[in-house]
Amino acid sequence: MREPGIFIVDDVAFIQAEHGMQLGEAIARRGIRKRYYLETRGDVLLRNKKVFELWKRLGLNTMFLGLEAIDEEGLKRYRKRITLSKNFEALKYARSLDVNVAVNIIADPSWDRERFKVVRDWCLEVPEVVNISINTPYPGTETWHTESRRLTTRDYRLFDIQHAVLPTKLPLPEFYKELVECQRVLARKNLGWAALRQCAGVAIRKLLCGQTNFIRMLWKFNNVYRPELQLADHRRRVKYEISLPPPSVATAQHRRLYIHENRGRNGRQIDHRTEEFVNATRMGTAS
Question: pTM for this structure?
Answer without folding.
Answer: 0.78
